Amino acid sequence: MSGWWSRNVLRIYAVLALGYLLLPVAYTLAFSFNQAGKSNLIWKGFTLSAWQGICDAPDVCAAVRNSLLVGMLATLIATVLGTMIAFALGRHQFRGRSTTNLLIFLPMATPEVVLGSSLLALFVNMGGGLLGFPAVLLAHVMFCISFVVVTVKARIASLDPRLEEAARDLYADERQTFMKVTLPLVMPGIAAAALLAFSLSFDDVIITNFNSGSNFTTFPKFIWTSSLRGIPPQANVIASLMFAVALAVVVVGQINAARRAKGLIA
Amino acid sequence: MDLNGDLVLRDLRKEFGDFVAVDSINLTIAQGSFFALLGPSGCGKTTTLRMIAGLETPTSGQVLIGGTDITHTKPHQRPVNTVFQSYALFPHMDIFENVAFGLRRRGVGNVEKQVMDTLELVQLAHLARRKPGQLSGGQQQRIALARAIVNRPAVLLLDEPLGALDLKLRRQMQIELKRIQTEVGLTFVHVTHDQEEAMSMADTIAVMNHGVVEQLGGPLDLYERPVTHYVANFLGQSNTFEGTVASRDGEFARLATADGEFSVTSAQSSGTLAMGVRPEKLEIAETTGNTVPPTANQVRGTVTDAAFTGVSTQYVVRLRSGKEVTVFEQNLLFGRRAQVGDEVTLYWDARHSFALPASAAHAAAADGS
Amino acid sequence: MAEASAVGSRSRTPYLLLLPGMAWLAVFFVVPLVSLLMQSVQTPLPGGLPGQYEQTFRFANFVDVLSRTEFLGALGRSFLFALLATVAALLIAYPLAYAIALRAGRAKPLFLVLVVAPFFVSFVLRTIAWRQILGAEGPVVGALQALHLVPSNFSIYPSSLAVIAGLTYNFLPFMTLPIYASLDRMDTRLIEAAQDLYSSSWTAFRKVTLPISMPGVVAGTLLTFIPASGDYINAQLLGNATTTMVGNVVDSRFLVNSDYPTASVLSFTLMAIILAMVFVYVRRAGTEELV
Lengths: 266, 369, 291
Ligand SMILES: Nc1ncnc2c1ncn2[C@@H]1O[C@H](COP(=O)(O)OP(=O)(O)OP(=O)(O)O)[C@@H](O)[C@H]1O
Ligand SMILES: [Mg+2]
Hints:
The structure holds three protein chains of three kinds.
Chain A: H1 3-30, H2 49-52, H3 60-91, H4 97-108, H5 112-125, H6 133-157, H7 161-169, H8 174-202, H9 206-211, H10 219-229, H11 233-261
Helix pairs in contact in A: 1-11, 3-6, 3-8, 3-10, 4-6, 6-8, 7-8
Chain B: E1 7-16, E2 19-29, E3 34-38, H1 45-53, E4 60-65, E5 68-69, E6 80-83, H2 95-106, H3 111-121, H4 137-149, E7 155-159, H5 167-184, E8 187-192, H6 195-201, E9 204-209, E10 212-217, H7 219-224, H8 229-234, E11 239-249, E12 252-257, E13 260-265, E14 272-277, E15 283-284, H9 285-288, E16 297-308, E17 312-319, E18 324-330, E19 343-348, E20 354-356, H10 360-368
Parallel strand pairs in B: 3-8, 3-9, 6-7, 7-8
Antiparallel strand pairs in B: 1-2, 1-4, 4-5, 9-10, 11-12, 11-14, 12-13, 14-20, 15-19, 16-17, 16-19, 17-18
Helix pairs in contact in B: 2-3, 2-4, 3-4
Chain C: H1 2-8, H2 13-40, E1 42-44, E2 53-55, H3 60-66, H4 69-103, H5 108-116, H6 123-134, H7 139-146, H8 160-185, H9 188-198, H10 201-230, H11 233-238, H12 246-255, H13 260-285
Antiparallel strand pairs in C: 1-2
Helix pairs in contact in C: 2-13, 3-13, 4-8, 4-10, 4-12, 8-10, 9-10, 10-13, 12-13
Bound molecules: adenosine-5'-triphosphate and magnesium ion.
Residues 45-46, 85, 159 of chain B line the site of magnesium ion (MG).
């Protein structure tokens, strides 16, 4: 084996693996330009019509709006609640720590179909009145909390405790130490957790399916239910746009993080 | 809290589980003095400082400044600032804001000028708008110093503040530190590994070992009259001889050892005793060409090693008992040098030898015989 | 951490911080599980409409459901497919994570972004794309036919293989990221030191790199296996009636047939088996700290 080969085989592999990961994304994008009939599974020819009339397909834009609404509210609530738990775990001694850790871990170790069906069991027992937007929001916050806790807790654990001590030594009381030193330093972890929560909520099919009732539709549920009849190419357009927006957010975040690591911006 | 006066540690003790990190130490550090805490790694220096700063709660004992008990005062209410061993600069703030942090918390005026003056003092005013991550280790250390000094605390705790600096900068900062300390009249408690630094800067030095203060005193005192083997060997080098007191001769005890009888300043008139003498106090009769004064201690041996180090030549001389002693001899241009294999006579003024407690092993051996 | 205890001990603050989030989990995670368990021991209301049940605590429901071969088959397939997908994902993800953490150089952030990128296209659309890729008109079958390796009516979709491939693909980023994180934290001087000591780089990998990345492997396999075993989207879109997983059964019994007790029994059984497996696995792997 030549030196070049052994040096680069892993890199070549990585490029191939990434190609494999991105292949379905490319398909999704390509079929947003398809002259689709009832179904959008076979290539019929190029058109921009789906891009020019994104909301032309019935219900698709309403579903996106619902997804954004649920995603943002669930992210907000789960990030606040999860961050509070992470601080309790990372910065305080208390009785019941292992029970807390277990209760955080269990939702992550439970398959979505169980989470979804058990919530449905609860809501059905309550008479079914909450099914729809309220049930979906309550459920999304529930499964996002654990991921927020884990993400923020890791960030808190990586903080140098000397920094908070230095602040206290320099006349900052507990509140000032938290506001001026701890919180700004944990912020990147909270932002990452919020991003994670949003993407989990925004892409959830299974739990939403169980708890959304018949009148409330999110974007993933829209695609799932229309996959039986045929997905309109507008769904591909929206997915491609989401992909572009998310990619931009992550890339900007990465660049900021890299620059912050070099200490160029706050 | 506006406090002034001596810093007093009373029976201060810290245990971590079963481990005693600081073992009931008592110290009085005079207001405005430069106090150095010297000792090997892990002996409890940082823990002691942390208890003074209020970052660690003592297991028992008290910390007082000017007679006021501050043992249970919160760190931010103590007129004490720390230069952390690991700097602990705030990574999300620039240098200026790091230094301004304490001033802003106390709400004092004229922050800009005080910060810039202090940055001038540590010669880093030009880096005021950089982030800590963009500074070298030595620069970070000086910012940590500036961040503490700018507050003019009653007591400044320095945990190896010059450890990362090169020799030249280190000397420069030592002079600066000493100047700030005398000008502003702050009490400095300075932890260091560097004994030369401690001896050149401090009014008083405490040598710590295993959580206890082994000896406390001025630099000269500690060097010339160490009272334990540990101090004798931690501060500079020592040659030690173990023996039994055979007789007395005025202020001296005559100590019978495996290598002959020596005089050592001690009040003891019987029992076992150890004696130490610094390598630079020993002279080699053959190279100085002097006759050995009658009152001097002397011993014969064979040179087994001679190393030229510039300022001095370091000899290792093996005595009759097999013990090896170290001798530092100043290099004089025309002096003769001893060669490896030479038989030589070593001698030293009896007042240069200091008494130490006999080591446990020797005392036991003397008892059994 | 002594200083943390100094701040927090004997104070009400931690409990106030925990209260809202833990209450949320109690009400919307623990209580639903109890509801699920209650529902699993209900029986049809005599003379009631379909979908009306009464609480009779008939634990024999478990025996009834779990003795039917179609349900046992679905459960078995769930664990088998999830296991195969987890192994395949591990084999694909480990070298990828290794390459990104230790060989990507300045391209590292870009590679990482591309690993998470597929997340941002809807899960269902990604899966449907595989249906197109693996279908009779797709490029994979086309290439195989052009090489005369398979007959002309050959198709990979629908099949168990397609379902497993879909599961592997969909959870690959969950496998890659934790392994990457554990390898990225590693001090590369350790490898150099190990190569220095063991001289063969394969031995160095086995003795140093692999053990260090173990927490990442454990987290990655859990994050892949757990959702894969409960998934029914892949089985629905890439499989047929013979590839039904337990998720499909729970979904249709709950939402189509209103057969709540059967669905609850299966759902509860799935969770119980997974939790038991997870705890054994975590014990064996010796990592208490997850993710
Ligand atoms: N939080 C802690 N928990 C348990 N043991 C500790 C803790 N902090 C310090 N120790 C122990 O107490 C002893 C004294 O530590 P300390 O940090 O005071 O040493 P030091 O004299 O400052 O050493 P160095 O010169 O290496 O900085 C050490 O043996 C250390 O391991
Ligand atoms: Mg220390």
